Amino acid sequence: MNTIKCRNCHQWTDNDKPQCLYCGYEHHHEINREREILKKPLRTGFPFIKIGKSDGWPIKAGKYIIFFFQLIVYGIVSIIMYIASSVVH
User: Fold this and answer.
1) Using alpha carbons only, what angle is made at residue 72 by residues 68 and 78, rounded to the nearest 5 degrees?
2) Is 59 helix (H, G, I), strand (E, B) or coil?
3) Could you give the number of structural domains in the chain?
4) 89 has pLDDT over 80
5) pLDDT at 37
6) What is the distance between the alpha carbons of residues 46 and 74, in angstroms, rounded to a whole number?
7) Which end of the chain is more exposed for a tag (fewer CB within 10 A), N or C?
8) Strand, coil or helix: what is 3?
9) 8 Å CB contact between 19 and 28
10) Using CA of residue 19, residue 20, residue 24, residue 29, what is the dihedral sign?
């Protein structure tokens, strides 16, 4: 029998069971929580401003201007990263 010490009641209990036999504490709560976090897709890419279909034309115009400057900044950062990585190698 594979036993572990319960973190809640400090009694030795069966590790094959999902919960402590004495207090009902879930043994693998942290592991299950980490698995759920790892199942979520990672957010990759640059955080561009969202332009909605229901936005009014002044708001859309402002968002397009912000989007344009975001593209310029991300382009400059990408070029700097490319140059830095090519110099290192």
Assistant:
1) 140
2) helix
3) 2
4) no
5) 85
6) 8
7) C
8) strand
9) no
10) negative
Q: Give Cα separations from 25 to 12, 19, 33 (angstroms).
A: 12, 5, 15
**Are 25 and 51 members of one domain?**
no
DSSP 70-88: HHHHHHHHHHHHHHHHHHH
Which range among 17-21, 29-33, 46-50, 74-78 shows the weakest confidence by mean pLDDT? 29-33
Per-residue pLDDT band at 78 (split at 50, 70, 90): very high
Same domain, residue pair 57 and 89: yes
Q: How confident is the model at residue 1, as a pLDDT?
A: 64
Domain that holds residue 18: 3-39
Closest Cα to residue 29, out of 57, 4, 66? 4
Residue 57 sits in the same domain as residue 32: no
d(CA 81, CA 16): 49
